[in-house]
Structure prediction request, 517 residues.
Amino acid sequence: MVRRRDRHGAGPRLTRREALALGGAGALAAGLAACGDDDEPDVSRAEDAPNVLLIVTDSTRQDYLGAYNPDAPAPTPNLDALARQSLRFTHAVPEAMPTGMVRRALLTGQRVFPMRDWVRTEGLPPTPGWSGIQPHQPVLTRVLGAAGVTTGYATDNPFLVGPVYEAFRRTLDLSAADLSQASYRDYNIPFTRLAPRSAIVRYLLPELSDTVEVRRLRSYVGWNSLYRTSARRYSAARVMSGGMRILEQMRDRRPFFLGVDAFDPHEPFDPPESEYVRLFGRERRGLQKEGIQPIQPFNTPASYASKLDLDEEDLQVIRQLYAGELAFADAWIGRLLNRLDDLGLADDTVVIYLSDHGVMLGEHDILGKAASEPYREIYRIPYVIRDPSGRRAGETSGYFASTHDVARTVLSLMGIRAPGAMDGEDLSVLFEGGEPPARPIWTSAYQDTYLAGDERWVLIAPESGKVRRLYDNATDPEQLHDVADRHPEKLEELWQALIDAAGGTLPVFGLAEVVGG
Prediction:
C-alpha cells in the first residue's frame, strides 16, 4: 500500500483505522521515526484525521447547564444544543483540582493526583499540586505539531498566559493570550493602574473591606475602566473572539487542534448589566438594595456565608450574577460554534467541551472553593464530545470520564500514537462500539483533600485520613449527612481504592487550607 506524504512533510500518513489496526510494536514503529533537527519524533497521523476543537470554561457547575438539569438557573442554549449533538458524560470528575492541576492534566495526559511531585513554584499558588508542566512530561500540542497538525490556543487563564507556561505556548503555531485576567491574585504581572477605592465600593461587601479582595477589585475595576469598553470586550467575549480569529487562520491549515479556554464564569461574577437585566429584571434584591453588587462575594478561595452576614436573598443575588456570567459565556461559545460552521469546518471537526470544576454558591454555608470541602457542586463537571458524523449524538455515558483522558482521546481521534507516559484513557473508542478500561471507582483530589467514589457513594478525606466522611448520593444528593459510621465496609472499600490509586500511600503536606472570612 502506498502512503502519501502530507503537505507539512511529516512523513507517510496512516488513516486512523490503519494506525489502530497496526497495534503494538507495529504502530509504534509506524508512528515514531528518527528524530529531526529539533530532536522531536517524526510522528505519523491519520490521513483522514479530523480537526479537534477543545472548549474549556472555568468554575462551571454541571447543575447550572440545561443539558444536565432541566431546572438550571442559567439559560445555556448553545451548550445545551452542543450536548444534544454529543455523547454526554453524566459522571465526569476531574482527576485533580483546581485550575492549575486540571490544565496540567489536559495538556500532558498525565494524572496530577496524588500531587506527589509538587514543588512550590514562583508564579503559582503555594498549595499542593500547583506546579507547571515538567521537562520530562509529554505535551499534547508538541506531539500534535510533530505529526503535522496545526495547533492553536486562545485563553485568558491567568496561569496559562503567565511565565510558568511559556514553554507550552512555544509549542503552538497560533495563539491568542488575552491579559484581561492576568493579574489575578497577583500570580502574574501585577496591574499597576489600580482604580481608587471609591470606585469599588459598589462591589465590596463590608465584611471584606480589610481583606486582599480590596486590591483585587481595584485591579479588576482599573483594568475594566481602560479596556472593557463594551460587552464585546468582556473576558469571555475576548477569548471566544480570539478563538474565532484563529479558526479563520486554520481554515486552510487542516487538520488542526484548537483549544479555547475561558476563565469565566470564574469569580468575580460580573456579567454585562444588559445581560443581567435581560435575565433577571431590574428589581433590586438583597445587597443590591444597599447599592452593593456582590460580584466578588467571598474572600478567595472561600468564605462561610454566615460569617459574611449574607442571608438567603443575598445568596440568590450572587447565584443570579453567576448564572448571568455563565449565560454570557454560553452566548459567545455559540458564536464560536457558529463561526466553525460558517467556515465549513463543522463537518470535519470533533468538539470537546468540559469544565475544570464547579463552585459553591451557599451550599454547606460555603461561597467559593474550599479545598477541605469539595462537595458535589465542585467535583461534578459537564463533559461532552461531539462526533462530526453524528455518532452517539444525544446519548449519555456513565463512564467516569476525567480531565487526563482528553490528550489521549485527541491523539487517538487523529490516528496518532500517544506517548506511553500518558496515563489517561482513549474515550474515542466509545464512538466505535468499544469501551475504555473499566473505572468502577473514581479517585480525585482538591489540593490536599482526597476523594473516591462510585455511582452512589463518595468518600472525602484529608491526607491523614483521620476524618473520613462518607455520603450516600442516592438518599442524600445534597451530601448533608455523613454516614461513615453506618457503612464501614463501603468506607474502607473507597479508602483502599484511594490508597491503591495513589501508589500505596498518600503524600503528607501538612498545609490543609482553611475556609476564609
Summary: The two ends are 68 Å apart (CA to CA). Residues 49-439 form a domain with the Alkaline Phosphatase, subunit A fold (CATH 3.40.720.10).
